[in-house]
Amino acid sequence: KAGVTQTPRYLIKTRGQQVTLSCSPISGHRSVSWYQQTPGQGLQFLFEYFSETQRNKGNFPGRFSGRQFSNSRSEMNVSTLELGDSALYLCASSGGGQGAERLFFGSGTQLSVL
Amino acid sequence: GNSVTQMEGPVTLSEEAFLTINCTYTATGYPSLFWYVQYPGEGLQLLLKATKADDKGSNKGFEATYRKETTSFHLEKGSVQVSDSAVYFCALTPWAGSYQLTFGKGTKLSVIP
């Protein structure tokens, strides 16, 4: 069974640009969560989607948005990039309805903003 | 709000040494507690969990006990191996069915032969 797949693996952007990251969950999983990992702030929850609906959102500005498609694949978008958005963005999926104990994480997309 | 505090390290131990990584939390209600591990170049993996007070989570020789009176969930292993070298994260969710994890800053463990 394939794991959580995130593309691309690496991205380099410049300030002011926008970026879209993609996440394909494990087959059959309907919940997708996104996290930002930085050396300074650590791992922080961005948002969670279930069946195309955002169920929870972390404390991030409106420049960070996401969506989920009918096949459960998810994308997150960051507009007007800032240097501080440089981070590893992790996606996690779950299908068991048992919360975080059934979360499976992808390897992440490393975003560098120059 | 909810928060998790863990010793940040880095921690360097010799093989077969005893490991303790301290973790304390602040949360209302009945949070679930987790330890995750991140090996170099890999994604986060759940190491162990506990969903109520006095529960002990265990996996791969690691253990942690949910202590509500001290709001702690310390990670322990009796004899570490080189293969245990990784970054360890303590985390909580506000309730058992939640997907919204609050993480500690992580502790980098290096085990030397």
Per-chain topology:
The complex is a heterodimer of chains A (114) and B (113).
Chain A: E1 5-7, E2 10-13, E3 19-24, E4 31-38, E5 42-50, E6 53-57, E7 64-68, E8 74-78, E9 87-94, E10 104-105, E11 109-113
Parallel strand pairs in A: 2-11
Antiparallel strand pairs in A: 1-3, 3-8, 4-5, 4-9, 5-6, 7-8, 9-10, 9-11
Chain B: E1 3-6, E2 11-14, E3 19-21, E4 23-26, E5 32-38, E6 44-50, E7 56-59, E8 62-65, E9 75-77, E10 86-93, E11 102-103, E12 107-112
Parallel strand pairs in B: 2-12
Antiparallel strand pairs in B: 1-4, 3-9, 5-6, 5-10, 7-8, 8-9, 10-11, 10-12
Folded structure, characterized:
The complex is a heterodimer of chains A (114) and B (113). Helix content of chain A is 0%, strand content 53%. Chain A is mostly beta strands. In chain A, strand 4 (31-38) and strand 5 (42-50) form a beta hairpin. Chain A is globular. Chain B is mainly beta and 113 residues long. Chain B contains no helices and 12 strands. Chain B has strands at residues 3-6, 11-14, 19-21, 23-26, 32-38, 44-50, 56-59, 62-65, 75-77, 86-93, 102-103, 107-112. In chain B, the strands form 3 sheets. In chain B, strands 2, 5, 6, 10, 11 and 12 form a 6-stranded mixed beta sheet that branches. Chain B is globular. The termini of chain B are far apart. The interface between A and B is medium-sized, with 26 and 25 residues.
